[in-house]
Amino acid sequence: MIRMHIGFDDTDSPRMGCTTHVAALLVEKLLKIGVVFTDYPNLIRLNPNVPWKTRGNGALCLRIECKESIVEEVMETVIDTIEKNSDLEYKGTDPGVVFFFNTIPLEVKDFAKKAIQGIVKMKDALRLIEKFGAEAIGFKTGRGIIGSLAAIGETLDEDHTYEIIAYRTPENCGTKRRIEASSVKEMDEKTSSFTFNNIDPETKRILITPRGPDPILYGVRGETAEAVKQAHKMIKPLEPVERWMIFRTNHGTDSHLREISTINEIKPFNPVIVRGFVSKEPRIIPVRHVVFSIKDKTGEVDCAAYEPTGSLRQIAKQLILGDVIEVYGGVRPASSKHSMTVNLEKMCILVLKPKFVLFNPKCPKCGKTMKSMGKNKGFKCDRCGFRDSKAKKVAVESERSIKIGLYITPPRSQRHLTKPYCRYGKEKSGELQKMIADWHNS
Ligand SMILES: [Zn+2]
Asked: Would you place residue 308 in the very low, low, confident or very high pLDDT band (cuts 50, 70, 90)?
């Protein structure tokens, strides 16, 4: 038997298609010719902050075993299916396929990590493909080869989640998605300890149905394959479901965020986790974004909470100078209009600086609040006429309206990769996975 990892990426366009749908079609075709799947199809989200990202920046990998005699047929089927189901006429859709044999070397795993957290180059992908005797096919510019190799290299040994995706029939694509809202609500209530981001808690909007012309009717995310399948059974679609597929993914794992120790290490397009103290107070800029700066001994950077970040933006607005925070988010490079900016996905408030409010002093004779006689000229009492040229404003500590803790953008504006609140404590570690596997095998 031959072990094969089939990565592919960038088959869709904003006007049609979805690379996960191509994966679903391929699973059916490959099963028919006799391959054995060694994992669920992997749906790997790559760095959401690359400037040329495809929608959602998701790449796919199918991991299989097959007889040596059908390797050719497998490869032909894959290439043919990708060619027929890609939006090749669309400028900017540049599909790629990579066939990788046997085990995944560390170098390819590192390449994947870099593609999820930063920027990788085509020449690095091609070098690895050549070094390890893999085969790659690129359509047009072939840029999809980068994502294809990255999907192969992300073997999801650590934290991961599952998504079940139900697809629409071709004639329904582009029309309004029809699904019974009450069944989604019920599913959410019954499965919420094992699924996530079904409904936005602030707006009550259903999040499992995407918008746009792609063939996805809905997708449910969760901790296990069984959980998402269970959830899928509870949903009542009001239009035919063409097919469904369960993917193992890095959704909701924060795997795009890399912790760095100092602000001067921040690089454009590389999502970060970094600490600093608030050095410029939050200001509201059009259209209702909140921008502030954080600083450490190495540098200073702007942080922005955009309007759709809802509650996170409300919290950011109340920061004051000296608060110590940890920010999580993508990095936008400097432009003529703004300096380099961390776009907040999350924020952890570590230390809140006491806040003082200045009041005019009270009259020592009659107790009425005095009035200023001009800057540095002291205060006078309107009621009894008392004057004190040396009197100063009194600082009174006022309670902070925000608390120490972690704040996350609401599910409706979360990135695919953002780990939501409800997943904290449910992370799957490699060790834990191994323990569960051992327990099952014993
Ligand atoms: Zn007085």
From this structure: confident
Q: How far does residue 389's CA lie from ligand 1's centre (Å)?
A: 14
Give the separation between CA 156 and CA 160, rounded to whole angstroms: 6
Three-point CA angle 331, 159, 24, nearest 5°:
90
Instruction: Quote the pLDDT of residue 441.
Output: 64
Say which residue, 288 or 279, is predicted with more confidence.
Answer: 279
Q: Is the peptide bond before 108 cis (omega within 30 degrees of 0)?
A: no
pLDDT at 406 over 60: yes
Say how far apart CA 142 and CA 122 lie, in whole Å: 9
Cα-to-centroid distance, 365 and ligand 1 (Å)? 5
Measured between alpha carbons, how far apart are the two ends of the chain, in Å?
26
CB 355 within 8 A of CB 343: no
What is each CA distance from 338 to 200, 301, 312, in whole angstroms?
31, 11, 21
3-state secondary structure of 31: helix
Q: Ligand 1 center to residue 370 CA distance, Å?
A: 7
Answer for the pair 409, 309: CB distance below 8 angstroms, yes or no.
Answer: yes
Measured in Å, residue 9 CA sits from the centre of ligand 1 at 77
Of the listed ranges 17-26, 126-135, 283-292, 425-434, the one predicted with least confidence: 425-434
Give tens-digit pLDDT for 153-189. Answer: 999 999 999 999 999 999 999 999 999 999 999 999 9
CA 384 to centroid of ligand 1, rounded, Å: 4
Lowest mean pLDDT of 119-133, 206-220, 307-321, 323-337, name the range: 307-321
One DSSP character per residue, 122-152 reads HHHHHHHHHHTT-EEEESTT-THHHHHHHHH
Q: Which residues of 320-337 are buried (b: 16+ CB within 10 A; e: fewer)?
A: beebbbbbbbbbbeeeee
Q: Ligand 1 mean position to 375 CA, how many Å?
A: 20
**Count of CB atoms situated within 10 Å of the CB of 226:** 12
174 Cβ neighbours under 8 A, 6+ residues apart: 213
Euclidean distance between CA atoms 152 and 393, whole angstroms: 65
